Amino acid sequence: xxxxxVDFRAEADALHAxxxxxxxxxxxxxxTFKSWTINDVIQHLHWGDLMAxxxxxxxxxxxxxxxxxxxxxxxxxxxVAATRVMLEGLTGAALGARWHATMVDLCDQLTAMPxxxxxxxxxxxxxxxxxxxxxxxxxxxxxxxxxxxxxxxxEPTQRLRNIAEIGVRTYGWTFVNRGMELxxxxxxxxxxxxxxxxWQWHDRTPDNCITGSAVEFCQVVTxxxxxxxxxxxxxxxxATEWMRIAQCFAGPPETPPTPGSRAPKK
Length: 266
Known about the structure:
The protein has ten helices and six strands; from the N terminus they run αααααββαααβββαβα. It is α+β, with helices and mostly antiparallel strands.
């Protein structure tokens, strides 16, 4: 099986286990991410997986799926409301079950694809491995909102390597997506993995580098935490500017959370 698909499924399985412990009323509790409820979060993840399935079906299906969402936005709906309409109001445990079943099917389809397959997405086209990692990344990032809300500690795993990889690769995307010039060469990134190993990207450059926890790096590039709420060591202007606005996901530029707004309660 495609290694990235195994990791994607494991990420979703872990979140699904947390959802299985929720009371029905918990699904309407607001998270610290734009006050989205748990229903909103899982609807968003499910919608993303359905959009992925439309990409598998071909360019025409993908274009139609996106056009349906655009039509709802043109009627004045925000993303949350439009997603709710597209999913016909599916909520709660039934939503969790549907999301999980769709994800399992998605992983099977990804595994069956030739490794050189390229797939349409909201941003640039992606190869099947990076496409799969992007689904894992979004599941991990949005899952954090639920873990934080429910006070559940998440054990870091080797799966973080995939998210760190996509974080490093999207250094340029962060700036291009904002119409900005790159502030300099990509910084070297040296991270402490969950089992005590060191993960390294780019030749070490002491005057342009990021070092520290792999978990915290992944949190910053996915905009789960503000850089000020981490212990990452950031040196150099290019590295500093990147960490200030880092965005490893597709779509229009998003502003990272303000300092303290999504830091875990102590």
